[in-house]
Amino acid sequence: MRHKDGEIVIKKLLIANRGEIVARIIRACRELDIKTVAVYSDADQNAPYLKDADEAYNLGPANPVKSYLNIEKLIEVLKISQADAVHPGYGFLAENYAFAQAVVSSGAIWVGPPPEVLKAIESKCYCRRIADSVGVPVLPGTNEPVRDANEIFQFAAKYGYPFLLKLDKGGGGKGIESVNSEEKIKGAFERLSRIGYMAFGNGDCYIEKQVMMPRHIEVQFLADHFGNYVCLGERECSIQRRYQKIIEESPSPVITEEDRQTLFNYTIKLAKAMGYRNAGTIEFLRSEDGSFYFMEVNARLQVEHPVTELVTGVDIVKSQLKIASGEKLDVEQEEINLRGHAIEARVYAEDPLSFVPSPGKIEKLVFPPANGHFLRIDHALEEGLSVPPYYDPMLAKVIAWGSTREEAIRRLREALAGFHIEGVKTIIPLNLMVLENNSFVSGQFYTGFVRELLAAK
Amino acid sequence: MEQIVRAHMPGLVARVVVNVGDRVQKGQEVAVINCMKTELSVQSEYDGVVKEILVKEWDEMEVGSPMVVLDVE
């Protein structure tokens, strides 16, 4: 129950998503006395969080296009349930302009940035132009989509190899090609344009010089409707497989207080220039020499938000709901101190070495022993539950806190070693390999870490 | 005689990459399945000619679901 000028704003929230994030959002709603409406496809009818929601509606077949990506159906549920707001979670329609606009047009509140912001930032080139215009460094590249292969040859002649060809409207690790020689330009350009048309209905590509041995550092921020902004520290997300994160932590082991102030400054400049509201993340690349470059905006709640919650004490989902209700930020930048260290491991249902997906039935499930508020496990698992082949492979997030990075890593290792899932394969053995690796423990790594770790095996 | 190329993993049909009448060789990709957002190649186990395509994009597959019918000499 939220108030604006004495009027209750959000009374009932539709959560347009599936899996652990639904359970996470329901927890926040309970603390705010907001009723919840969950949705599910035929493949998710036994999901444990459906019992915790006040209402639950079937969206139809397992196929996400007919269920979790079906805007018409979701708007129908919004109307039938009389929910007055929608939280899109992450993935699916979380950054979809058309869905956000449909929610707003039907008179409900969109818990996220304004639809017109979502529309504009769909284009990575637009984001690069904005960054350029406010003095935030971007990598050498093009700020408009390239028209033909000739333009790419010209770029290569000026800046050399390697560089990345990226889809202007790509995302989720899809639509990126590394080009390291002249012969590869035409093929990469044609392939990427085709993938773009097929996956996103748009084949526009742009160029970005490739940083060798980069680290992926991102800043979480909140923006209210009164021009207030607050940065909730950074997250180090360099441990990835196939451009997708598997281990995240806050603070980053390489970021100095001076770096942090620089990144906060960049983040707020960008958020202001974009007219951003609600919670968001700005991703940066850090090159080996310690320079930072703007990468992209994530206009949603992120999978890895818990590490920030553990070091700042700020509940990001509750903050999103309050901002969406028209409340002012109740925390100022000076009050944000990163306390201790938090680290998260994503547990995917995959073979830990080949990453071949492993859907199936969870035959046995033993959670790690409790460790007070030092350990948090966000999941939507239950013994006997089927993990469907149609959606993301993430089963759970295990997040540990420690007064130092070493302590947090140690606690996460202990937790993962005590987490037993049978019936599907998981990447827990890989998570443990990373967490036990000396280079990782000493903070010496970059985004190619997992690839090199596995190649050395 | 007829042989059927079947799904080796569950998921959704991402695309079928052959047409009726195409000659395919053993080991050649005939379709792609999206399983947990990962694309997996479905390959023919036979040399033959595509006689019938039984699936379309987004169809739900289980292990063993028939996908493509081949005429095999």
Layout of helices and strands:
The complex is a heterodimer of chains A (457) and B (73).
Chain A: E1 3-4, E2 7-8, E3 12-15, H1 20-31, E4 35-41, E5 55-60, H2 71-81, E6 85-87, H3 97-105, E7 109-110, H4 115-121, H5 124-133, H6 149-159, E8 163-171, E9 174-179, H7 184-200, E10 205-209, E11 215-223, E12 229-241, E13 244-250, H8 257-274, E14 278-286, E15 292-298, H9 305-312, H10 316-324, E16 341-348, E17 360-361, E18 364-366, E19 375-379, E20 386-387, E21 394-402, H11 405-417, E22 420-422, H12 428-435, H13 438-441, H14 449-455
Parallel strand pairs in A: 3-4, 3-6, 4-5, 6-7
Antiparallel strand pairs in A: 1-2, 8-9, 8-10, 11-12, 11-14, 12-13, 13-16, 14-15, 16-21, 17-20, 18-22, 19-21
Helix pairs in contact in A: 3-4, 11-12
Chain B: E1 2-6, E2 11-16, E3 23-24, E4 29-35, E5 38-43, E6 48-53, E7 60-61, E8 66-71
Antiparallel strand pairs in B: 1-8, 2-4, 2-7, 3-6, 4-5, 6-8
Give the helices and strands of chain B as they follow along the chain: EEEEEEEE
Biggest beta sheet summary of chain B: 4 strands, antiparallel
Q: For this structure, what is the CATH homologous superfamily of the largest domain in chain A?
A: ATP-grasp fold, B domain
Instruction: State the secondary-structure class of chain B.
Output: mainly beta
Largest sheet entry of chain A: 8 strands, antiparallel
Give the beta-strand count of chain A: 22
Overall mean confidence score, pLDDT of chain B: 96
Q: Which fold name corresponds to the CATH topology of chain B?
A: OB fold (Dihydrolipoamide Acetyltransferase, E2P)
Q: Between the first and last Cα atoms of chain B, what is the distance in angstroms?
A: 6 Å
| Structure summary, number of beta strands of chain B | 8
**Largest sheet, spatial ordering of strands of chain B:** 1-8-6-3
What's the domain count of chain A? 3
Stretches of chain A where pLDDT is under 50 for at least 5 consecutive residues are none
Helix count from the secondary structure assignment of chain A: 14
- Helix percent of chain A reads 25-40%
* Domains of chain B, number: 1
Query: What CATH architecture of chain B do you see?
Result: Beta Barrel
CATH class of the largest domain in chain A: Alpha Beta
Strand portion of chain B, in percent?
Answer: over 45%
Q: What is the CATH homology-level superfamily of chain B? A: RNA polymerase II/Efflux pump adaptor protein, barrel-sandwich hybrid domain
